[in-house]
Amino acid sequence: MPRSDKPARAVAPWVRTRLRTAPWAAAALALLVLVTAYLAAALPRAVDRYETEGLQHDIRAAAPRDAVLELTTPIPVGERGHGLAPAVLQGQEDRARELLPEPIRTDPRQTVHGVRTVKRVEGTDAWLPRPDGISPEFVLSSPSRLTEHATLRAGRLAAGSAAAPEAVVTTRTAASLHLKPGSVVHVPSKSSATPIAVTVTGVVEPRGLTTPYWAVEPLLGTPALAPLVGEEVKYYWQAALLLSPSSAAAVLSTSSELEVFFRFMPTAGHLTGRDTDRLGAALDSAAGGPDLVKLRKAVGGGNAALTTELDSITDSYLSMRGAIDPVVAVAVFGIGAVAAVVLAMTGGLFVARRDSELALIRSRGASLTGIGLRLLGETSAVTVPVAALALGLAVLTVRPPGGSGEIPLTPSVLAVLTVALLATLVLPARAVVAHRRPRLHGGRDDVLTARPSRRRTVVELTLLVLAVGAVASLRLRGTGDSGDHLVSAAPVLVGLIAASVLVRIYPLPLRWLGRPARRLRGVVGPLALARAGRSSSSGTLPLLALVLALSTAAFGGSVLAGVADARDRAALLATGADARVGGSVEWTPLPAGLTEEVRGLRGVRDVAPVQIEYGVALPSSQGTSAQPMSAPIVGVDPDSYTRLAGRTGFGPFSAGLLASTGRGGEDAVADTGRVLPAIASPSVAERLGDAPQEIVSAAGVFKVKVVAVRSTTPALDEADFLLVNGADLTHRADTSLLVTGSVDGAALRAAVRAKAGDAGSGSLVVAMRSEARATYVDSPLQSGAERIYLGAIGAGAALAVVAVLLSLLQSAPERTTFLARLRTMGLTRKQSRRLLGLEALPQAVLAALGGMLVGWATVPLLAPGIDLVRLALAAAPGFAPLDSAPLRADPWSLLLPALAVVVLTGLAAVAQAWWAARRGSIKELRAGDAR
């Protein structure tokens, strides 16, 4: 029979045989890869989701008059009314709506068109209300789809024509202007002395004044009492007459400027966070580009203009996202580095467990290529299907917000491929490196005898240079450049350097402790130190994983603590205390007895009554040549207000600074020369100077002398203020109460209503610090970024646990055999548990100390470049109650994870000793066991 040159087929294929002989190891690797790949795939999808939700939220939450797209065109002089027919305007609206560029889409139910007067016209009827003798003014508007947004309450809907116009009014307009069905309102005509008569045929009630139909132009639904500022302030009514579409041409006869309007309310459900550039370009084109030309042709107006504030809303969203993304990237890089180290540790565990097997195969002539390919096939058979499953789970569990487009798969696929490649290649790579040369038995490989190679020194120096550059860049430029990943990786690089340094100095304390430990009477202590010193030098990976995990947790915890602290301080600055009672308008005195009533409520610890008068003119030490300046003056009770300032930290001072002069009240009206000590803000103190200055206010006429300067004060969130003793004021009337304590908001409001009565309850407002704090978290961008940080901390903790377990499992067989031998020499079970616990503690304590030090050092190093204002507060820069929210190290975030690592390591070692003690020693001590 001829002999074949083809190699004989293996009777037992390598991959199948290995997976069958070690199913639990394969299952553990599959589980680790599944969780890691799922987190890697879900992260970009979660970020995309909260960014999409943030954009949609900002557009939906914006005021309708800001988000609306309004297309207006002046009515030509020669227009006779044919171009204002309802059918013509409806056709123009439909064409314009179709021409709006993508991704702009509008809600047809909130789309409205019509004709209106640009300037209000005067109502000349003598029976119309005139509060100060000024005739009311009306907007004549013919909005479409009125029946869809209003309910008829009296009369009938308007019909009419251009010659005999008819209109309806809302219930509020009818009540304020004394209108009813059958009323005739006359407005001036531009071409005749005979005024235009508009007949009111009905009264309608809007279906929700906050809907875009009514909210874009509030005057259509709600009349306004407007001030006319002159030598004295006079008020007059402004209202709207809602003409029927068939009567729209009647506006051509009025003396006002006229225009046709088309309002399109944009929808946000289809938008994603990736559409911001397209949306901005579309808005620019529609407002002043090629698409505006098309819109002008559609509505037949060469001067048509489209106005909207939607671009400002988008810009604000981009500003917040640009401020948040770099901060989130720091957490992503940290947890990614920990995951990579844990995967590398997994490969090291497998190589250590199979070291003798691979050494035997290598000594019998196996090539490195053959060993590497077989191990590659073995790991890929586990990791590739599991990675695909993780990708599918991420796609199924992290879905896009309802109505928006699908989340791109590319970032998730790349993340899963990275995890799969790392998990697949780490075992073959480490095996090939470890068995470059055939060997029978390995020599000692412990941290006391190991010497760092030149390659390792070069790598550590390279990382040191990168870390220094990243930290310097972050301190100089901040996190504003979202594309600079080196800056975001700065905490990871600092952790890498710290871990490398700790590994290098790790043998020193062991050597120092080894000699005095020999003098101890017991055997457990010296033996544990000797065992810790002879642990494998490959234990640098567990140390690195723990340091990175702890530093990431410390940094993330500091970020979350800084966000919480910024919100607490912003809310406290807004209210001045835990609760605040004050008037809805300035200079509203509090009811008599309210202070005592509030002080007696459950949970109230202290009450500080204050009298605030705004807009008090301040004299200048430079005389009349200085520019005018005003500031609020605050009359306080020094004792209670000093306690409040001390608790809040806003401008604390000694009560003696505002000691009473003993001359106040109504008896001191004529004593205008008395000098009151005052505490002022820096700008007010600079203006008043050192000499006493006369203050003329509603609270009295007196002089003040600045005795102290403070930048903030609890009663006001403004930059300028002047504090004086309220007892020295001529006209004393408390206007606000600053309440300290865990008082219930409902009970406080009930007490205020009871004291104010039905007539005055609406003039007093109760503000709670807890309610004010809740308003600072109104964007999915903020909450999404916080969830990412919480997830990073949780994932880092889980990976730290895995690192501890992998470190213990790597040496578990050798420890079990060692304990079995010691048991034959008389070592008790209690001593066995103490031995393994003490053996594992040095590295755990070193990792805990290293993680704490790295976290503590990283925060102040990176703090100058990180500002948490946009992550903490929803307001845009310039409108936030805090100018900055610096990053500070959180002690609990530093201490708790480090203690948890030490405790977990000790418990795991004790559990290992307990498990080994339950098993017999025959298997571990049988003849021929591995060295």
How is the topology of this model organized?
Layout lengths: L13 H8 L1 H39 L2 H4 L1 E6 L11 H14 L12 E6 L3 E2 L14 E5 L4 H4 E6 L10 E5 H7 L6 E4 L8 E11 L5 H4 L8 E5 L5 E10 L14 E7 L11 H13 L1 H10 L5 E3 L2 H44 L1 H9 L4 H30 L12 H25 L19 H24 L7 H4 L1 H16 L1 H11 L6 H10 L6 H36 L3 E5 L10 H6 L4 E14 L12 E7 L1 H11 L26 E6 L1 H7 L4 E5 L2 E10 L12 E4 L10 E6 L3 H16 L3 E5 H6 L5 H31 L1 H13 L4 H34 L6 H4 L18 H28 L3 H4 L6
- Mean pLDDT equals 81
- Into which percentage range does the β-strand content fall? 5-15%
End-to-end CA span: 48 Å
Helix content: 40-55%
Q: How many distinct beta strands?
A: 21
Q: What is the overall number of helices?
A: 30
Shape: flat
**Overall radius of gyration:** 39 Å
Largest beta sheet, briefly?
A: 9 strands, mixed
Side by side, the strands of the main sheet go: 17-18-16-19-15-14-20-13-21
**Low-confidence residue ranges:** 927-931
Which secondary-structure class do the elements indicate? alpha+beta
Overview of the molecule:
The longest helix is centred in the middle third of the chain and has 44 residues, at 310-353. The protein starts with 13 loop residues before the first helix and ends in a 6-residue tail after the last helix. It is flat. Strand 17 and strand 18 (700-709) form a beta hairpin. Mean pLDDT is 81; it is low at 927-931. The protein is an alpha+beta fold and 931 residues long. The protein is built from 30 helices and 21 strands. It has a 9-stranded mixed beta sheet with strand order 17-18-16-19-15-14-20-13-21.
